[in-house]
Amino acid sequence: MQTFLGGYCVARSLDDGFLRGQTAAGLLWLVCAAAAVLLGGPVIRGVFAQLPHLTEPLRDALVRRSVAHALHRAATGGPAGDPAAVSRLTSQTEIARDSFAGLVLAARSFVFVAAGAVAGLVALAPQFLLVVLPPLVLGIVLFTASLLPMARAQHRYLDADEAVGRRAQATRAALRDTVACGAQEQTAEANRRAVEEAAAAQRAMARWAAVRTLCVATAGQAPVLLLLAATPWLLREGVGAGAVVGAFTYVLQALLPAVHTLMTVLGTAGARLFVILDRLTQPLPGQPPAPAQRAALRPAPDDLGTRPGHTTPGTPDGPATRAGRAPALELLGVRAAWHPAAPAVLDDLDLTVEEGLHLAVVGPSGIGKSTLLHVAAGLLTPRQGEVRLLGRPVADRHPHHRAALRVLVPQEPYVFTGTLRDNLRYLRPDASRPDVDATVAALGIGPLADRLGGLDRELDPQTLSLGERQLIGVARAHLSTARLLLLDEATCHLDPAAEAVAERALRERPGALVVVAHRLSSALRADRVLVLDGTRAHFGTHTELLARCALYRDLVGHWNDART
Ligand SMILES: Nc1ncnc2c1ncn2[C@@H]1O[C@H](COP(=O)(O)OP(=O)(O)OP(=O)(O)O)[C@@H](O)[C@H]1O
């Protein structure tokens, strides 16, 4: 009634009042129009009073659903913390409620305004409908057709945006391993793809926003222009000037704002509501974590090179390597320091580790054993000299190939939430079941697998002891295809028997093994021992070194004392 009276009273005030010189009648009609606006106030108030009856049940249902899902997930052994649950419970349900309220208000307003305006236009002159209705209907049909793709674009954008967040988090968490595996470029490439997808999704949203603007223009602005263009014809048809002004009042003051509001609210709040309801009603319990999250932490299969003894086309091993002649590792006159201003930790060090050799590196604390492994792995560039990996300078090798050829197992290996099998296949995701089983048997991981409920049961890294983590780290190296394994006190938390089993298993696999030994028993098992002594080094068998290296004798003596 408010809309109807708004245009109708204006038309009458002109046609029956002011244009006929009857000012009093004109003013009376305008008073009627003003009264209609005032009478609309209580109606709007009533609408807001009723609104919660629609929106609160929706919010309650969403909250109940979120809580039920979170509890179900926790009770059925899913990941202990579900960070998304809080967001679903609070902000997402609030957004859903607000969006729904906005939609209800906009739709209500449009329906009543459109009905009042159409009734008013018919009452003034039915010819107005010929001018106003076609663009209005066309705009609304176009807009309705664009709603679904618009919601999909919004969905795509949210997914892409979340993927960027997840990748950033995963990259940060796996930074150390990424560097250790030489997977920086691969990680950067995957991150770049995620960012580009988010940007593309945002551009798609912008295109749909342009379509929405076009629809608003068609449904809201085109009737104004058409009405202007049709005015001479309408006047010739006998329509009064006041009625034309009344029609403009309907279009400009009622239809245009209502269409604009409806389309804006549907395009923004509607799409948001669609996406959030879609998320909140998804089957959350028992879902496995998003694969992208873990894929980000593993090298891709093409990072992994080949089984020892085979050479894939494209693997940049020189001919000497294929023939098995190139040493696994060579250090030629290496001088290494952690900072240009820092004293050298290694100085003029020559070392050759042939394929199949088991080398133990020993020396006092802080002497440079870990530094040596960093240099060997290509993670610390020597200030002088050269490091060669399988016959080629390590610096020349692409990080992917470097990662495929050598593995550095740290003292505290990274174990991620996932199955034990996936953890073991971390460095070789395509490892077959028999290969995994062989590693499990060789490393004696059976009891750990049993305790965790099998190889395919998801484990919680926080429940693992340091020794169990180390066992997983060493098993990864065993399962990998790398030709050079570098263990940096990687078995120090294992008991001596388990350490012996692990070292024997690693030694029996093809390739060379360099172990920074925590216990001197490692040196006894090794083919050769390297004793670091300041910037000097001694190299030989256990027996040879006992005979000619005082520091080694000291170390063995201290170790024997400590044991007894
Ligand atoms: N990341 C690093 N940045 C700077 N300096 C380092 C770094 N790692 C080691 N150093 C320094 O290099 C020297 C050799 O340390 P390194 O860890 O290689 O000795 P280590 O023989 O492995 O000792 P430990 O047996 O105690 O582990 C030390 O002076 C140490 O402070």
Descriptive account of the structure:
- Residues 306-323 have a biased composition (Low complexity).
- This is ABC transporter ATP-binding protein.
- Residues 329-558 form the ABC transporter domain.
- Residues 86-257 form the ABC transmembrane type-1 domain.
- Keywords: ATP-binding, Membrane, Nucleotide-binding, Transmembrane, Transmembrane helix.
- The chain is α/β, with parallel strands linked by helices and 564 residues long.
- The chain folds into two domains: 2-295, Up-down Bundle (ABC transporter transmembrane region fold); 326-563, P-loop containing nucleotide triphosphate hydrolases (Rossmann fold).
- Helices cover 63% and strands 10% of the residues.
- It has 19 helices and twelve strands.
- The strands form three sheets. It has a six-stranded mixed β-sheet with strand order 6-9-10-3-11-12, sandwiched between helices. It has a four-stranded antiparallel β-sheet with strand order 2-1-4-5, with helices on one face. Strands 7-8 form a two-stranded antiparallel sheet.
- Helix 1 (2-17) runs antiparallel to helix 2 (23-75), helix 2 packs antiparallel against helix 3 (83-124) and helix 4 (127-173) packs antiparallel against helix 6 (184-236).
- The longest helix has 53 residues, at 23-75.
- The N and C termini lie far apart (101 Å).
- Mean pLDDT is 84; it is low at 285-323.
- The structure holds adenosine-5'-triphosphate.
- Adenosine-5'-triphosphate (ATP) binds next to helix 10.
